[in-house]
């Protein structure tokens, strides 16, 4: 029988070669499974996968102060791992794996109001490469609804200025074409003119084909993109958070509020299922109700 590290290695290879999972997914799953392995080792049960050990692992994570969403993701990873082992004949837990996941209420995505967000974007500097890069990051995350990992993976050859589209690689390594609005395209063109100027001042040659680079001429990492967005959204007191995904949520919400078709939004976001996109309709309905309660003379008011 294979050891747990060997089973994990086989599962990750399956995700990479068969499922075509992204590098971020592979890294996250590897960390989660190794953490579970360390938990079993510390508890004197090295390599022993069981329903009880998985439940204990979930309880341990919650008690250690990890967010419920993070614990759910880790348990979801374990569920998928156990399903893989069951299909391959390595183990047979004999229980419905879905019971291992704790239930929680549906959480609606949050969005920034249109006017404050647009004012913020217009206030971002454009005179130097780094300032223009910050503006471009927000323009593409909000103007195109990109995931931060998708933006980090955009190469120069993925940009079609004539057609005004960008080719991005999303979850499951699925490619899609995303339209780029005029403000974002103009910002992109100006950035391309300055791209690498900071590195050249230090006599560093820029060889990477990645669109967004740092001052050393290297690709800007996902973490670097996150820090940039965190600093920019920190200037907006009314923003409900600083996560880059907030800009993606705002992209979809604002499209719906302005009458865009749900199927078109699904395509632009790269959602495999329309049900994932439909969560944004709940936000718009809630906002419509707020407008009604504030404006209609027959609305109930406290």
Q: How does this structure look, described?
A:
The structure is a single chain. The protein is mostly helical and 302 residues long. It has two domains: 4-100, Orthogonal Bundle (DNA polymerase, domain 1), CATH 1.10.150.130; 114-257, Intergrase catalytic core (hpI Integrase, Chain A). It has helices spanning 4-19, 23-42, 51-63, 68-88, 114-123, 129-143, 148-152, 182-194, 197-201, 222-233, 245-257, 262-269, 274-277, 279-295; strands spanning 159-160, 165-169, 175-179. A three-stranded antiparallel β-sheet has the order 1-2-3. β2 and β3 (175-179) form a beta hairpin. α3 (51-63) runs antiparallel to α4, α6 crosses α11 and α11 crosses α14 (279-295). It is globular. The protein starts with a helix and ends in a 7-residue tail after the last helix. The mean pLDDT is 86.
């Amino acid at each position: 029988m294979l050891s747990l590290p060997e089973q994990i290695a086989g599962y990750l290879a399956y995700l990479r070669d068969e499922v075509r999972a992204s590098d971020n997914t592979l890294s996250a799953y590897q960390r989660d499974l190794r953490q579970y392995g360390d938990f079993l080792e510390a508890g004197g049960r090295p390599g022993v996968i069981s329903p009880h050990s998985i439940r204990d692992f979930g309880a341990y994570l919650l008690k250690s102060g990890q967010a419920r969403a993070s614990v759910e993701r880790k348990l979801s990873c374990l569920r998928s791992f156990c399903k893989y082992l069951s299909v391959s004949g390595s183990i047979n837990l004999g229980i419905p794996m879905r019971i291992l996941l704790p239930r929680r209420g549906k959480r609606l995505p949050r969005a920034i109001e249109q006017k404050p967000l647009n004012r913020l974007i217009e206030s971002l500097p454009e005179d130097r490469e780094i300032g223009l890069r910050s503006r471009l990051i927000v323009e593409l995350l909000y103007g195109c609804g990109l995931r931060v990992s998708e933006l980090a993976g955009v190469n120069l050859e993925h940009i079609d200025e004539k057609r005004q589209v960008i080719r991005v690689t999303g979850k499951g390594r699925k490619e899609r074409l995303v339209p780029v609005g005029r403000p974002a395209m103009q910002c992109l063109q100006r950035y391309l003119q300055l791209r690498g100027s900071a590195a050249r001042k230090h006599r560093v040659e820029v060889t990477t084909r990645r669109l967004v680079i740092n001052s050393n001429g290297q690709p800007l990492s996902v973490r670097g993109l996150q820090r940039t967005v965190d600093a920019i959204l920190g200037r907006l007191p009314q923003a409900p958070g600083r996560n880059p995904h907030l800009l993606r949520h705002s992209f979809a919400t604002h499209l719906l509020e302005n009458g865009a078709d749900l199927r078109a939004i699904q395509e632009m976001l790269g959602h495999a299922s329309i049900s994932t996109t439909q969560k944004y309709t709940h936000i718009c309905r809630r906002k419509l109700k707020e407008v009604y309660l504030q404006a209609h003379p027959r609305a109930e008011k406290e």
